[in-house]
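Query structure, 222 tokens:
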């Protein structure tokens, strides 16, 4: 039973961690080098794409905005820039056009302009999957320290809800489940005692009857 809990619990935990890692916002400090629009045929990886701009037709073949950036070490970093609309994740993003304009303006500025790109999702080259930009904010430099306030607040609320659910389940168990279990235990104990008493009485009568038969046999047959 203990191994069964681990076998079921570990995959469930991994799925929850992967879901939160994909959905919760992350921030990258990068330098924007340009923007692009590509005609994309969304296929088997459609789960990792958002939606066309709000108010447009929902087609699998569509133009997708991209923002091209580089890490401080020079490695490329590419983001898609799609509206999330009213769907999941619930970022209610409707301003992908404005973000493109903001990115183009930042890319044209002289010198190294560093920005914090807030995004969700993963970059998986094998399946042509890109993280989706939520917002862009200019920062002082590539080594700026950013505190993930949203993630901290989210996990605090999640922990509080988990604690409240645990306390509620524990109280319900103590109030409703435990009395039933105790009643079943008492019933089983009573049944066991009755069975034991009946068994002892049957053994006593059998012993008495056997002794009487032996005395009768000895009287008549010696």
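Result returned for the query:
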């Amino acid at each position: 039973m203990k191994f069964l809990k681990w076998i079921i619990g570990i995959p469930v935990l991994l799925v929850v961690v992967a879901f939160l890692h994909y959905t919760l916002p992350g921030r990258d400090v990068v330098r924007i080098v340009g923007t692009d629009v590509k005609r994309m045929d969304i296929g088997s990886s459609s789960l990792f794409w958002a939606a066309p701009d709000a108010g447009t037709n929902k087609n699998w073949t569509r133009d997708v905005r991209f923002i091209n950036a580089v890490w401080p070490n020079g490695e490329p970093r590419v983001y898609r820039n799609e509206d999330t609309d009213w769907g999941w994740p619930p970022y209610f993003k409707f301003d992908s056009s404005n973000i493109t304009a903001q990115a183009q303006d930042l890319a044209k500025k002289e010198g190294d302009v560093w920005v914090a790109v807030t995004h969700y999702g993963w970059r998986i080259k094998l399946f042509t999957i890109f993280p989706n930009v939520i917002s862009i904010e200019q920062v002082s430099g590539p080594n700026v320290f950013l505190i993930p306030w949203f993630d901290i607040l989210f996990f605090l609320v999640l922990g509080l809800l988990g604690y409240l659910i645990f306390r509620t389940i524990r109280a319900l168990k103590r109030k409703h489940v435990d009395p039933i279990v105790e009643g079943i235990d008492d019933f089983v104990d009573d049944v066991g005692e009755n069975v034991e008493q009946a068994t002892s009485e049957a053994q006593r009568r059998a012993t008495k009857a056997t002794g009487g038969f032996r005395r009768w046999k000895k009287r008549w047959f010696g």
